[in-house]
C-alpha cells in the first residue's frame, strides 16, 4: 500500500473503470467518539459497564499478535495518531484517491450493538453508530455509503432501526454478521428481512459475529487459522438455511451480499443442495426451484479474500467464477485490514476486460441504488 501514490494514480487513471468497493471498514478514532450520539443514560452505561457480548474468548484481539490492533495494516495508522480507518482525510490520501474509488460501502464491525447481551443498550449503540456514520463520514465524503447496523439478535428492534433509516440515501444496505445465535434463515430473523425488503435495501452479511457458540460444531478451535477457514462453513450453513427455510419465497425481492467470505466453496455447496433437494423436496414443498437457481437469483459475493492460485491453476479460479456467474461477484478491498486487496492487482490478468469492469462496478448496479448512476 506504500506504493499507492499520486504518481501511480495519474499513471493508471486513463485505463481504469469506475470502482465500487463493497467492504471498507471505518473505525471509531478514539473511545469517546460516540459520546455525541448516545443519550446521557447510555453514555454513562457505555463507560461504566461497557460491552457484554454473547461470545467466548473475546478478551484480547482475536488476530495474530504479530499484527497490530485487530489485524490492521501497519501503514494504515494515521500519521497524526488514532486508529486505522478512523481518519477520513488519511483514508482519502492513502486509498480512496490513489485507487480511484468511485463508491465505497462502509461496514462497521465494532461496536455496533451486534451480539450485545443487554438488548436496550444494543439498540442504543446501533442507532448511535448509524448517526456517527452519517455525520462523520457520509456527509463529509459523498463517495462513502453507510450500512445500517442493527442489533440483529433483537429482530424487532432491528426492524425499527431499518425503518428509521429507510429512504435515507446515506444508507445502502443492512449489515449482519455470519455467526448468529440461530441459523439466519429461521423465522426469528424474518422481521429484519421484511423491513429490508420494504426499504429496498440488500442484506450484507460480513464474516465473524457473536453467536455465543464455538466456531466449529465440536468446540472451540485451537488456532486462528482454523477460525479463518471456518468462514466458508458458516456462510454455507446460513445460505442453506436461507434456501430451505423459504426466506426467498417469503421475500422474493430480497438481495443478500456475502462479504469477506471468499467464494470458491459456493459451487460445491450449490451442487450438494441441488442433489439433496431433488431427493427430499417433499419435505420443503415451498422451495419450488433447485437451490442453485435460488442462490443465483438472490445472492452476490465479494472478492476479498480471493483465492490466488499459481498461473498453471489459474483456470480453476476462472472456471469457479464463471460457474458462480461473473454478474454475481463484486469487488471488495477490506481496507484497512492486513489482507487488503489492491483493486488494480486483485483480479486475474487473464480475465476478460468486460468481466473485470463488471466486477469493479457494473455488478454493484444490480444491488446498490447508488451505483446505478455510474
Quick synopsis:
The chain has 374 residues and is α/β, with parallel strands linked by helices.
Top keywords for this entry?
374 residues; alpha/beta; TIM Barrel; eight-stranded parallel beta sheet; 8 strands
Secondary structure: helix percent: 25-40%
Structural class designation: alpha/beta
**Distance between the terminal alpha carbons, to the nearest Å?**
26 Å
E-strand count:
8
Could you describe the largest sheet, including whether it forms a barrel? Answer: 8 strands, parallel
What number of structural domains do the residues give? Answer: 1
CATH topology: TIM Barrel
Beta-strand portion reads 5-15%
Supply the number of helical segments. 13
Q: Unreliable runs, pLDDT <50, ≥5 residues? A: none
Biggest sheet: strands side by side, in what order? 1-2-3-4-5-6-7-8
CATH class: Alpha Beta
| Estimated radius of gyration | 20 Å
Reported CATH architecture = Alpha-Beta Barrel
CATH superfamily: Metal-dependent hydrolases
Global morphology: globular
Ordered list of secondary-structure elements with their pairings:
Elements: H1 6-13, E1 20-24, H2 40-48, H3 88-96, E2 103-106, H4 119-138, E3 144-149, H5 155-165, E4 171-179, H6 190-199, E5 203-209, H7 224-229, H8 231-244, H9 247-250, E6 256-259, H10 266-280, H11 291-298, E7 299-302, H12 314-324, E8 329-330, H13 353-360
Amino acid at each position: 500500500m506504500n506504493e499507492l501514490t499520486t504518481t501511480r494514480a495519474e499513471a493508471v487513471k486513463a485505463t481504469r473503470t469506475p470502482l465500487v468497493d463493497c467492504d471498507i471498514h471505518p473505525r471509531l478514532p478514539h473511545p469517546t467518539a460516540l459520546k455525541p450520539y448516545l443519550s446521557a443514560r447510555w453514555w454513562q452505561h457505555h463507560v461504566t459497564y461497557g460491552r457484554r457480548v454473547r461470545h467466548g474468548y473475546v478478551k484480547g484481539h482475536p488476530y495474530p499478535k504479530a499484527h497490530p490492533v485487530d489485524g490492521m495494516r501497519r501503514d494504515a495508522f494515521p500519521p497524526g495518531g488514532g486508529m486505522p480507518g478512523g481518519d477520513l482525510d488519511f483514508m482519502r490520501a492513502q486509498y480512496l484517491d490513489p485507487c480511484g474509488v468511485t463508491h465505497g460501502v462502509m461496514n462497521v464491525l465494532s461496536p455496533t450493538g451486534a451480539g450485545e447481551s443487554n438488548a436496550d443498550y444494543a439498540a442504543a449503540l446501533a442507532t448511535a453508530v448509524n448517526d456517527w456514520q452519517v455525520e462523520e463520514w457520509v456527509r463529509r465524503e459523498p463517495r462513502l455509503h453507510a450500512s445500517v447496523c442493527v442489533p440483529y439478535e433483537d429482530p424487532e428492534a432491528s426492524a425499527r432501526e431499518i425503518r428509521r433509516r429507510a429512504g435515507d440515501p446515506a444508507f445502502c444496505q443492512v449489515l449482519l454478521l455470519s455467526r448468529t445465535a440461530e441459523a439466519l434463515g429461521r423465522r426469528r430473523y424474518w422481521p429484519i428481512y421484511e423491513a429490508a425488503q420494504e426499504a429496498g435495501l440488500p442484506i450484507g452479511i460480513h464474516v465473524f459475529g457473536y453467536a455465543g457458540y464455538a466456531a466449529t460444531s465440536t468446540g472451540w478451535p485451537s488456532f486462528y487459522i482454523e477460525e479463518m477457514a471456518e468462514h466458508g462453513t458458516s456462510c454455507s450453513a446460513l445460505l442453506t438455511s436461507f434456501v430451505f427455510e423459504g426466506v426467498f419465497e417469503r421475500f422474493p425481492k430480497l438481495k443478500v451480499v456475502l462479504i469477506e467470505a471468499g467464494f470458491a466453496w459456493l459451487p460445491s455447496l450449490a451442487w450438494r443442495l441441488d442433489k439433496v433437494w431433488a431427493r427430499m423436496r417433499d419435505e420443503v414443498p415451498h422451495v419450488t426451484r433447485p437451490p442453485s437457481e435460488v442462490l443465483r437469483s438472490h445472492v452476490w459475493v465479494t472478492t476479498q479474500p480471493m483465492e490466488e492460485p499459481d498461473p498453471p491453476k489459474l483456470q480453476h479460479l476462472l472456471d469457479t467464477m464463471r460457474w458462480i456467474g461473473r454478474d454475481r461477484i463484486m469487488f471488495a478491498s477490506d481496507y484497512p485490514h492486513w489482507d487488503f486487496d489492491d483493486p488494480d492487482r486483485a483480479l486475474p490478468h487473464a480475465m476478460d476486460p468486460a468481466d473485470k469492469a463488471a466486477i469493479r462496478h457494473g455488478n454493484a448496479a444490480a444491488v446498490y441504488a447508488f451505483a446505478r448512476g455510474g
